Amino acid sequence: MKVACRQFDPQLGRSAENVERIVASLKDADLVVFPECAVSGYGFDSKEAALAVAETIPGPSVARIEKACFAGGAWAVVGMLERDGDRLFNSAAVIGPGGVAGVYRKMHLPFLGVDRFTTPGDKGFPVFELPFAKLGVLICYDLSFPEAARVLKLAGAQLLVVPTNWPEKAEVSCDHSPFVRAQENHLHVATCNRVGEEAGFRFIGRSRIIGCSGAVLATAGAGDDAIAAEIDPALADQNRVVNVPGKYELDRIAHRRPEHYGPVAEKE
After folding, report:
1. Are 23 and 64 in contact (CB under 8 A)?
2. Burial category of 161 from C-beta neighbours within 10 Å (exposed 0-12, middle 13-18, buried 19 and up)
3. Residues with catalytic annotation?
4. CA dihedral 60, 139, 124, 252 (to 10 degrees)
5. Long-range contacts made by residues 140-144, C-beta under 8 angstroms, separation at least 24?
């Protein structure tokens, strides 16, 4: 399959304009990943301001993207603010030619931007069955928690996509975490960051597509950009890595010792 990441500069509160940029990018790939809050922007100063542009899923923006997916035969993972009654979620919609395959709600919330006002995700870590891959989704700060990616791997995910809004001072998360999550889980990883400035923050781009071995397949710069790479999702199911046959072989799934990991799931 061909996976692409389209990093751009979403304009705060200008959903219709942002959606048209998303729609224009739904081509030449099986799956296109867009940044966190790509529909709405991220740097809201209050819950009321964010709720004013948040949408239900499905909703108007999703319907417009779905129509474009149907026309082009593509799939999209799109970050947006989701309204559910009086609750506000930082979400990513998985949209295909036949509609919404599912929604992931950000589980781990930093004290930054709109995440100061959103509700922690309540849907867990679902795996979405697409025609070409088993897909897991995390959003930005979620990638800093290795348990999240491991849960998706153990649930069968072959490709992990991560819409992000990494600003300056998040270079370690941007430049190192994706490689580690790919290698330690033997899982393809695609991160799509935003660029530009918003609410006093500069966002650093550098979206990446990384193979399940941890090798970089494509990387973007610091400006408006698009990257793509061919991956074989089934390779992520072959967990045993043979470096030297019979002498140097690793399986980071089979070699786990979960009976000793109890404290990982305990609250302080």
Report:
1. yes
2. buried
3. 36, 106, 140
4. 140
5. 140/36, 140/106, 140/110, 140/164, 140/165, 140/166, 141/106, 141/108, 141/109, 141/110, 141/115, 141/173, 142/106, 142/107, 142/108, 143/173, 143/177, 143/178, 143/181, 143/191, 144/108, 144/173, 144/177
Tell me which residue of 159, 102, 109 sits closest to 139, measured CA to CA.
109
Query: Minimal CA–CA distance to 199: which of 108, 92, 141, 112?
Result: 112
Confidence bin at 6 (pLDDT 50/70/90): very high
Distance in angstroms (rounded) separating the CA atoms of residues 96 and 261: 38
Closest C-alpha to 32, from 163, 216, 206, 138? 163
Phi-psi region of 153 (alpha: psi -120 to 50; beta: other; left: phi over 0): alpha
pLDDT of residue 268: 74
Identify the helix (H) or strand (E) that includes residue 183.
Answer: helix 177-185
Q: What pLDDT shows up at residue 112?
A: 97
Domains and CATH numbers, the chain: 2-239 (3.60.110.10)
Non-local (6+) Cβ contacts of 149 within 8 A are: 136, 138, 143, 160, 181, 184, 185, 187
Among 227, 250, 256, CA closest to 238: 250
- 3-class secondary structure, 225: strand
User: What are the structure tokens assigned to 253, written together?
Assistant: 């799934």
In the DSSP assignment, the letter for residue 130 is -
223 is written with which tokens?
Answer: 């400006």
pTM for the model stands at: 0.96
Residue 92 contacts residue 163 (beta carbons within 8 Å): yes
Beta bridge partners of 143: none
Gyration radius from the chain CA atoms = 18
